[in-house]
């Protein structure tokens, strides 16, 4: 279960997530300082645990890859990727400096002080976005939260995948309404997606990584790529 470290400031609650290898005893533990009741990006959402589990399962694939996490917040998936040997950049809204600072705090807590943290506003082709190196894997947990943000997210993804057509966007999302869909937007921005069943990476359980967060939430995962020319 999530552990609370009572020795830290009362403003923070430290939670620990342990990702295990189902074939041997190898495991990875990540600590996250949460600030409950603050910005959305200051605590762990269920989708982040599921995405981090996928990154852990695919750790051989992410090793030595260039990885960018969008809307990182507490940065759980990005930290797991960095611990698995990826070259990670964390990002969150340029308009919310508290979230950017919290991403740095989470990295430092997990002995990753050199991980870059940049401010990126979805939908804006900013100098910060342009200055990023070509990205192999983009991570995004619960970035499809507000429907008005869906296209902005995909504009950013489309820009990054044009720079590296072999790149992939790994994303988890919670189904909050059957009326919400991104299929039309994917076609508009020349993108395609593949669903990833949670059971193939052992994420279809209530106590994932020692957390009760995923529970019965209707979380789904998909991989988005650039459309192939026919």
TrEMBL record:
Keywords: Methyltransferase, S-adenosyl-L-methionine, Transferase. It comes from the Eukaryota. InterPro entries: Methyltransf_16 (IPR019410), SAM-dependent_MTases_sf (IPR029063). One of its GO terms (cellular component) is nucleus. PANTHER family: HEPATOCELLULAR CARCINOMA-ASSOCIATED ANTIGEN, HISTONE-ARGININE METHYLTRANSFERASE METTL23. Belongs to the methyltransferase superfamily. METTL23 family. This is Methyltransferase-like protein 23. The keyword S-adenosyl-L-methionine applies. It comes from Hemibagrus wyckioides. One of its GO terms (molecular function) is methyltransferase activity. The keyword Transferase applies. Signal peptide: none annotated. Pfam families: Methyltransf_16 (PF10294). GO terms for biological process: methylation.
């Amino acid at each position: 279960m999530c552990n609370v470290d009572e020795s830290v400031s009362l403003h923070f609650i430290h939670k620990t997530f342990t990702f295990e290898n189902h074939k041997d005893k190898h495991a990875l533990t990540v600590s996250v300082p949460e600030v409950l009741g603050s910005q959305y990006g200051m605590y762990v959402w269920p989708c982040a645990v599921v995405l981090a589990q996928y990154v852990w399962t695919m750790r051989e694939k992410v090793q030595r890859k260039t990885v960018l996490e969008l809307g990182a917040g507490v940065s759980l998936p990005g930290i797991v990727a960095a611990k698995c040997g990826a070259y990670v950049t964390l990002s969150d809204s340029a308009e919310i400096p508290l979230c950017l600072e919290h991403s740095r705090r989470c990295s430092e807590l997990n002995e990753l002080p050199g991980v870059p943290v940049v401010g990126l506003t979805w939908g804006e082709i900013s100098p910060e976005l342009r200055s990023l190196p070509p990205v192999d894997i983009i991570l995004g947990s619960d970035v499809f939260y507000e429907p008005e943000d869906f296209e902005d997210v995909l504009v950013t993804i489309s820009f990054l995948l044009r720079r590296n057509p072999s790149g992939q966007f790994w994303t988890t999302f919670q189904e909050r309404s059957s009326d919400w869909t991104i299929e039309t937007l994917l076609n508009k921005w020349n993108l395609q997606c593949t669903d990833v069943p949670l059971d193939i990476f052992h994420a279809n359980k209530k106590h994932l990584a020692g957390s009760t967060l995923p529970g019965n939430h209707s979380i789904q995962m998909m991989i988005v790529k650039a459309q192939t020319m026919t």
